[in-house]
Amino acid sequence: MSSAEDFASKSYDYVICGGGTAGLVLAARLTEDPNVTVGVIEAGANRLNDPLIDGPNTFLQLWDKPEYDWSFKTVPQKGTENFVHGWARGKVLGGSSAINYNMYSMASRQDLDNWVELGNKGWGFDDLAPYYRKSETYNKASKTLSAKINDKYVDPLLRGTNGPIQVSFCETDCQWLQEVWPETAINAGYPQPKDPRSGSALGGFNQLTTVDPKTVRRSYSARAYYEPNAERANLSLLTEALVTRVEFEKSGSGNATATGVKVSVNGNEHTIKAKREVIVCGGVVNSPQILELSGIGSADVLRKAGINDIIFDNPNVGENLNDHTATGIPVAVKDEYPTAEVLLRNPEIAQQAFEAYINHKAGPFTNAPTCCGFLPLSTVAPNLDDAQAHVKTMISDFQRANPDADPAGRAELLGRQLLNRNEAVGQLVVLGVGADIRNAHTASKVFVHDAPGNWITLGMCSTRSISRGSIHIDSSNPTKHPRIDPAYFSHPLDLDLAGRSIMHALSLTQYEPLRSKLKLDENGNPILPPWTAGLPNNLEEAKALAAGNTVTEYHPIGTCCMLPKEKGGVVDSELKVYGTSNVRVVDASIFPTHVQGNIVSLVYAVAEKAADLIKGKATNGVNGH
């Protein structure tokens, strides 16, 4: 790592703005060529070997701490009872891959083929599958663990064998919930799961995690992509440095050419020169912010924020924000089944557990959440008489009322997908701790509550929300967070599906072996905490329950969409920013539509493909593997 003065004294072929999940993949792959120089600028610090990051299940202790987390907040959300939502986003080398849940998922075939249908040739399921494999090493579970958690759905032939990111199941502390979940799902009528890499993931199973089983440490981009290559002479890293804008040279009516970036370090400004390209990898919040601060965005938004040097007027920048919602309903479990409440309420026990992790790589902090399910509409809403008419009518009614909201026609595409029997309308995540969504404004407190006893949370997460919001600067000050408005439940179909999904999730409490672990009331019903309104009796009550108990699933996408410009695009299918000759965006902000499940695996795959595009090894429609 360099001092700011040393770093600024050199020029680089590629300047990467953001040493996060995607940025470090690019840095590693581009510097494989010893003749190429790369400079990476990261706003957070290098915290490699920090035990709170390394611990697979210590991530809640990172959130809302400025040394790890941007701690963004949304504006009040009408759709969720005017809650302000805390958005944990990694402000540290490795970005959000350093602070996430470690859950490792997979987009469906249709998710990615949607991208092609929207005009992005070369970005379909078959195009990206080799890049998923290139980024990972799958570690098979031992026979003992396999018998407990039922990992037989994984097809090793579809998995990577020598990629940087290690994925595995936890060998050291298998928990009761992970043992009972697969059987409960089958007894509830879920299909036998197949490997999500086959293109479809339905059923209930224990999901893989981004944990290295040999070291029992989080496997994330700083550890996997940066650390092994840190000594390369052609790779330079500047941490604790805020990119304030991209510098452009504009000639006549053609595209603007980036010459470098301005960075602020301890209040001092430096110019970093780029010979070939500037690559923005700031994530869904910071990438549109950097573009807008640099004069690329809606001229109206920019002028209101005090940016008068308009490089390229593109009102799509910062639009199309799309997030997975997570509606969490806690359910009481019997005292003999331990949950994370024991750690959250008793600092002495938490300290002992942390020492067990540090000294022996054992105990509850070794085991990230794994219990999940992917459910089609027919499972979530079996009593919906005419699902096709219901979904189509809700989409067309909204489009009639908002004719300019969706120039790409995404809602219709997603509606078709929601009706497909092989596609999930929801991801069920079962967590071994109770959630109090009244604390949505502070991410680190969502799992802190005062209800006595042990709890699990049945979390129903959207897979493809149709509601779309925005992220925009309202100040030219780069240290001021932009205005984040995910517009949760602004599309009525999203709330409708959340209500139906919650009723379905609560029905799982009727099935063994989960049921016998729960505390039940005198009528045999599960016990909900006092801050919920009790079990819903009908869809309207379930929708009200969803509106009051929903948070982000921390999967925002879309603010620098990869689409034709007239359809809402910010970057083209080579990830080049419209209006520029040599600026790209590479991170989840380019996703044109959402995909099911946890998105970190897709960010790695997108960054791997982007590296090949930049090297000229992959062209759209033909990948270089």
From TrEMBL:
The keyword Flavoprotein applies. Keywords: FAD, Flavoprotein. Gene3D superfamilies: FAD/NAD(P)-binding domain (3.50.50.60), Glucose Oxidase, domain 3 (3.30.560.10). Pfam families: GMC_oxred_C, GMC_oxred_N. This is Glucose-methanol-choline oxidoreductase N-terminal domain-containing protein. Residues 90-113 form the Glucose-methanol-choline oxidoreductase N-terminal domain. GO terms for molecular function: flavin adenine dinucleotide binding; oxidoreductase activity, acting on CH-OH group of donors. It comes from the Eukaryota. Its cofactor is FAD. Belongs to the GMC oxidoreductase family. FAD binds at residues 92, 243.
